[in-house]
């Protein structure tokens, strides 16, 4: 048989047809997210029955960016489906920083809301850091407040940022061994690259891996990516990683979500940062786009909201 991996990988990984040559396993974020959502929905129902507690989330969107609008809509729809109370605040692009800070302060005081998410990016006239720092760290379900970022660095209990948290879960639930692995991260943003590199490095509740981080000033990126047992790509450049830049059998986590056009019916056509077609015959496993990391990000937001509600109520 032609499979590269005969280790146990769990039921959440789909296999390519058995007849193709050395295909990668497809790590399905959609399937994994579905399983976790069922766990969350059950816990939300239990909280309501046992404690009369309903977790509450507010998403705040400033401006009319279509991608941001669709992400926020997906977050609210998922919250609703899981029994989480969700409110959506949509503000015009011209909203002032003071107005936004006022709205955040109101939600900090609102006892029905346990999680506050301010969708990024914000319009240029608003200081992003100032807004993120204004969110009560106990309601910071995105994990972007410096208190949570610091706790994460120290390996303390905190809200983990949703995308890195989702990647960790995806690796764990697909049976990928991270301990001692060579992990290479492409990208160093505050929301993906830096935190996932940090989590993969952590000894407890982390990846326990050897980590390299690449960015636009990296001299020879292929030198690094070819050494990776696990390659995590979050650069925002469609199809930038090709088959000749990876190691045979590597696990590829493609975080990129790039809009590369439209289908005939007007739906956005998406591509990852990895050139799926040239990598799929060489990798050991790969996350698709769509249906990979994206659904996990949204699911981890729900998980964090549930955690926030329980902490606020002193449960656990
Ligand atoms: N699936 C999901 O849930 C999520 C997906 N995303 C997607 O992930 C991608 C990255 O997002 P985000 O981290 O916010 O992006 P940013 O633009 O904030 O950061 C991109 C990073 O990649 C680096 N980079 C860009 N081009 C190259 C290159 N050619 N070679 C090496 N490094 C490069 C940049 O380096 P430098 O610092 O030197 O500029 C930067 O550190 C996007 O496609 C985004 O849509 C983001 C969040 C969640
Ligand atoms: N405060 C804040 N928190 C975030 O978590 C945050 C943010 N701002 N700004 C933007 C990025 C991006 N992001 C995504 C979430 C889900 C998908 C996702 O579900 N993608 C689907 C496809 C969705 C589609 O069809 O467009 C998929 O990959 O299958 C993608 C990207 C969260 N982000």
UniProtKB/TrEMBL annotation:
<feature type="domain" description="Tetrahydrofolate dehydrogenase/cyclohydrolase NAD(P)-binding">
    <location>
        <begin position="161"/>
        <end position="312"/>
    </location>
</feature>
<dbReference type="InterPro" id="IPR036291">
    <property type="entry name" value="NAD(P)-bd_dom_sf"/>
</dbReference>
<keyword id="KW-0560">Oxidoreductase</keyword>
<dbReference type="GO" id="GO:0005829">
    <property type="term" value="C:cytosol"/>
</dbReference>
<feature type="domain" description="Tetrahydrofolate dehydrogenase/cyclohydrolase catalytic">
    <location>
        <begin position="27"/>
        <end position="142"/>
    </location>
</feature>
<comment type="similarity">
    <text>Belongs to the tetrahydrofolate dehydrogenase/cyclohydrolase family.</text>
</comment>
<dbReference type="InterPro" id="IPR020630">
    <property type="entry name" value="THF_DH/CycHdrlase_cat_dom"/>
</dbReference>
<dbReference type="GO" id="GO:0035999">
    <property type="term" value="P:tetrahydrofolate interconversion"/>
</dbReference>
<comment type="function">
    <text>Catalyzes the oxidation of 5,10-methylenetetrahydrofolate to 5,10-methenyltetrahydrofolate and then the hydrolysis of 5,10-methenyltetrahydrofolate to 10-formyltetrahydrofolate.</text>
</comment>
<keyword id="KW-0658">Purine biosynthesis</keyword>
<keyword id="KW-0554">One-carbon metabolism</keyword>
<protein>
    <recommendedName>
        <fullName>Bifunctional protein FolD</fullName>
        <ecNumber>1.5.1.5</ecNumber>
        <ecNumber>3.5.4.9</ecNumber>
    </recommendedName>
</protein>
<dbReference type="GO" id="GO:0004488">
    <property type="term" value="F:methylenetetrahydrofolate dehydrogenase (NADP+) activity"/>
</dbReference>
<dbReference type="GO" id="GO:0006164">
    <property type="term" value="P:purine nucleotide biosynthetic process"/>
</dbReference>
<keyword id="KW-0521">NADP</keyword>
<keyword id="KW-0486">Methionine biosynthesis</keyword>
<comment type="pathway">
    <text>One-carbon metabolism; tetrahydrofolate interconversion.</text>
</comment>
<keyword id="KW-0378">Hydrolase</keyword>
<dbReference type="GO" id="GO:0004477">
    <property type="term" value="F:methenyltetrahydrofolate cyclohydrolase activity"/>
</dbReference>
<dbReference type="Pfam" id="PF02882">
    <property type="entry name" value="THF_DHG_CYH_C"/>
</dbReference>
<comment type="subunit">
    <text>Homodimer.</text>
</comment>
<keyword id="KW-0511">Multifunctional enzyme</keyword>
<dbReference type="InterPro" id="IPR000672">
    <property type="entry name" value="THF_DH/CycHdrlase"/>
</dbReference>
<feature type="binding site">
    <location>
        <begin position="187"/>
        <end position="189"/>
    </location>
    <ligand>
        <name>NADP(+)</name>
    </ligand>
</feature>
<keyword id="KW-0028">Amino-acid biosynthesis</keyword>
<dbReference type="GO" id="GO:0000105">
    <property type="term" value="P:L-histidine biosynthetic process"/>
</dbReference>
<dbReference type="InterPro" id="IPR046346">
    <property type="entry name" value="Aminoacid_DH-like_N_sf"/>
</dbReference>
<dbReference type="GO" id="GO:0009086">
    <property type="term" value="P:methionine biosynthetic process"/>
</dbReference>
<dbReference type="InterPro" id="IPR020631">
    <property type="entry name" value="THF_DH/CycHdrlase_NAD-bd_dom"/>
</dbReference>
<dbReference type="InterPro" id="IPR020867">
    <property type="entry name" value="THF_DH/CycHdrlase_CS"/>
</dbReference>
<dbReference type="Pfam" id="PF00763">
    <property type="entry name" value="THF_DHG_CYH"/>
</dbReference>
<keyword id="KW-0368">Histidine biosynthesis</keyword>
<feature type="binding site">
    <location>
        <position position="257"/>
    </location>
    <ligand>
        <name>NADP(+)</name>
    </ligand>
</feature>
